[in-house]
Amino acid sequence: MTLRISALILLAALAACSDPTKTARFALDPAPVAQQYPNRLGSAELREVSLPQYASDQEVPYQTADGAVRSSPDNIWADDPRRAVTLVLAQQISGLSGARVIAEPWPLTDLPQRRIEVRVEQFIATPQNTVRLSGSYYVTPLAASGGDVTRRFDIRVPVAGEGPGAIAAAQGQAVTQLAARIAQLQ
Fold first, then answer.
1. Total domain count for the chain?
2. What span, in angstroms and rounded, lies between the C-alpha atoms of 121 and 134?
3. 171: which residues sit within 8 A by CB, 6+ positions away?
């Protein structure tokens, strides 16, 4: 009986510590497409975007002046970060260029003309109040003529405001800028 009461008290204490109303979820919300570019990709399969470990975690990361990457379990992404970045990037490239860009696996009968791979090295809110998105992207022809395209990118977007909501908005803008570079093969 005493063991059962102790177990109930422990469970009640744990439940009190994990208040779901204190947890905020943030979506990667892309910037609206404001410009159109020529379709240089045709149809393309976007492989899952490779993110650094800290950017792949559920908590919204930020870097402090001492160089440490920090986060809080009270501020988490609404979706898996790899999945969200991949889907938003495909949507934005398509919206900017009219190309048919779909995240892998390719669901259509007609095979894609190209494959896009993005490897992110940094995707973090910095102490300088910017979001930094850097890495490389690769476009490989599958059923189209042309050679491989390899480009590096280093995008910095100011964080307008404070907190994880402002970080999420700046990250959405950074992904839109990357989509514009890929759409133009810059």
1. 1
2. 6
3. 28, 123, 125, 131, 133, 157
